[in-house]
Structure formats: C-alpha cells, structure tokens
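Extended Data, record HMA domain-containing protein
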Amino acid sequence: MGKSSFHYVVMSIRAKMLSMHDMFYGPAEPIFVKKPPTEEEKKQAAAKKEKEEYSILKLIPDYPYYYAPTPAPAPAPAKKDEKKEMKVTLKVDICCDECSEILTIAIKEVKGVKAVDCNVSKEKVVVTCAPDTSPDSVILAARSEFRKARLWADDD
C-alpha cells in the first residue's frame, strides 16, 4: 500500500468514530467580530453616500411626485350589440366531397352568405352570413339541392 491509500484508510476510520459531542454539536466554529469603523472609513462612507444621493436626487427630484397628476380618462361609451356575422347550422344528407361542393355553390348564391363549412362525416353544414340574412333563405337554398335539409338540432 502506498502512503496515500494508508492515509485514506485512517481518515475513513476516523470518520466512523466520532464522539457523541462531535456527532450532535460538531466542532467549534470560529466567531468573527466586526470592529467599529475608523474616522477615515466614516468619512469615505459619508462621501460615497453623498455622491450617490447627489446623482440620484438631482436627476429625479421628489420622485414619485415628480410627474403631474393626470385626470382619469372618461369611460368609453357603450357600444351597441351589433352582430357582425351570424352562423346557421344545418343538417343535410351529404355523403361525399362532391355533394359538399354542390351544396356550397347553392348556398353561396344567397345574398349575405360569407362562408360555408361542410362536415361530411357528421352531415353538418355551418353557414356564416350577415345578420340580415334570414335562415329560411339558407334552408331553401340547401333544399333546392338536397330535399331533406333542416336546421341542426341538439340531439343530431
């Protein structure tokens, strides 16, 4: 065994054999006492503090009262509840993309219709239109191509 391995063995044995006092309270730790500052240190600290106060207070005097108070803005007038668009949901017996194209063309001929979204798997058609467009006109356009078109019910 080399010198370093012997030292390692001795250290590991000592680590296992602590006295009860060392185990619970540990070795005494050093205490650091701060001495009072000298006159020269006091002068340096005062000069540094004065320099900091000068630089901050001269740039922004009386902060946070530096800015003049402004009156609160007037409340915005209440806007009318104008619907920009309306959605009409239909149940139409469509089976393929070709049927959805035929239906889309027929419904887009109605005045005020903006978009038509067809879901073939659910047989659901969502029509986005202007609020003045009547749902009956949308249903009639859908029935011109697909006879059993109707409004979407919650149980569909």
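Summary. The mean pLDDT is 79.
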